[in-house]
TrEMBL record:
PROSITE patterns: PKD, PROKAR_LIPOPROTEIN
This protein's name: Mannosyl-glycoprotein endo-beta-N-acetylglucosaminidase
Sample GO molecular function, one term: mannosyl-glycoprotein endo-beta-N-acetylglucosaminidase activity
Documented EC number(s): 3.2.1.96
Keywords for the protein's UniProt record, in alphabetical order: Disulfide bond, Glycosidase, Hydrolase, Signal
PKD domain residues: 43-111
Pfam families the record matches: Laminin_G_3 (PF13385), PKD (PF00801)
Record's signal peptide: none
One GO process term, biological-process aspect: carbohydrate metabolic process
Top-level lineage group: Bacteria
Length: 346
């Protein structure tokens, strides 16, 4: 009789434990599946995206299109904000460039399924609104916001093979004095304003000692002009009675190189505060004790005058470009290092 009474006391406790176990959950919050389930009864997970290619800081609307009546949803968004969601149809913002996966896991009364779509979302850098942009694809068209198509002062310009193998995809500067391009309607960036100048260049070794002028604007006086050049294999920036040069000196090697020059007045007011980039990477600025001159005492305070020159300095026919110039781009802000790196990879 005593054993019988003990069994009666144990049975309710065992039943309670069984009920708790049947309702227990996995680490992800989903109830544990009990026994074998017909797979055809499980959720068939599917979803769509409002766009699979967006620019950084744009949003994507995801829509659940799963069948078999799922009611509990867990999304995972690689590279997204938020990174997870339990909404059925969430909206996600992507802040950084890259290619990202999306996972949807869902439950119905019979169990859990998931669908992982690798590399579903591609995020690109937003297009940069260049003030002037000269692709030099066999012509002198400006595809930037100003629309200042370049003009040759010496007749029909020649075009040659660009870095991608396009037969007429780069402007071929003659290297002859007073043969250059101008940009009617665009005189440059004025005063102390932020600016970025970028271009692809290919300079033969025999032109190493020329001041190969890519672009030039302003007045030939102290602190009043802005010239972007390659001289003795180095980037050379002139602001008037001064110059800033890169420590790197390999640019006259008959190979294509991406040159970028960026100035943000928030970084300082002097020529030395200009940032230089070669092939998408930050270059080293030479001090005045080295190859630069007056860069530590001369300000950036450009005065506009004539239309900008491409291929020759505004103040001397001796400082002309001999080689190929491509994709000259100028914008009135200091591009970020990542934006410059991305441009060098295009």
């Amino acid at each position: 009789m005593k054993n019988y009474m003990t069994l009666l006391r144990i049975l309710p406790i065992a039943t309670l434990i069984g009920l708790i176990a049947s309702c227990s959950r996995n680490d992800d919050g989903y109830p544990r599946d009990q026994g074998e389930v017909d797979s055809s009864s499980l959720p068939v997970i599917e979803f769509s995206a409002s766009s699979t290619m967006v620019f950084a800081e744009e949003s994507v609307q995801f829509s659940n299109t799963s069948t078999n009546d799922p009611f509990l949803f867990t999304w995972t968004f690689e590279g997204g904000s938020p990174t997870t969601s339990t909404e059925e149809n969430p909206t996600v913002t992507y802040l950084a460039q890259g290619t990202f996966s999306v996972t949807l896991r869902a439950r119905n009364d019979f169990g859990v399924s998931e669908n992982i779509k690798e590399g579903l979302i591609t995020v690109e850098a937003p297009p940069i609104p260049y003030v002037v942009d000269y692709p030099f694809d066999g012509d002198l068209t400006d595809v930037g916001s100003v629309g200042a198509d370049a003009v040759s002062n010496y007749g029909n310009p020649q075009f040659g093979e660009d870095r991608k193998g396009n037969a007429t995809g780069a402007y071929q500067a003659t290297g002859i004095a007073d043969e250059f391009l101008t940009t009617p309607g665009f005189k440059g960036i004025e005063g102390t304003a932020a600016r970025t100048v970028m271009a692809w260049v290919k300079i033969p070794s025999e032109s190493v000692n020329l001041r190969n002028t890519i672009v030039s604007w302003g007045v030939n006086d102290a602190e009043k002009m802005f010239n972007v050049m390659v001289h003795q294999g180095r980037i050379r920036i002139e602001a008037g009675a001064s110059n800033l040069r890169s420590a790197e000196n390999f640019l006259a090697d008959n190979a294509w190189h991406h040159i970028a020059v960026s100035y943000d007045p928030a970084d300082g007011e002097f020529l030395k505060d200009v940032k230089l980039y070669i092939d998408g990477k930050a270059a080293v600025n030479e001090p005045d004790a080295g190859a630069s001159f007056n860069s530590e005492i001369r300000l950036i305070n450009t005065v506009l005058d004539e239309d900008m020159y491409i291929g020759q300095a505004i103040y001397s026919a001796n400082h002309r470009f001999n080689g190929f110039i491509d994709e000259v781009r100028i914008i009135d802000r200091a591009l970020l290092p990542g934006e410059i790196s991305a441009a060098a990879l295009e």
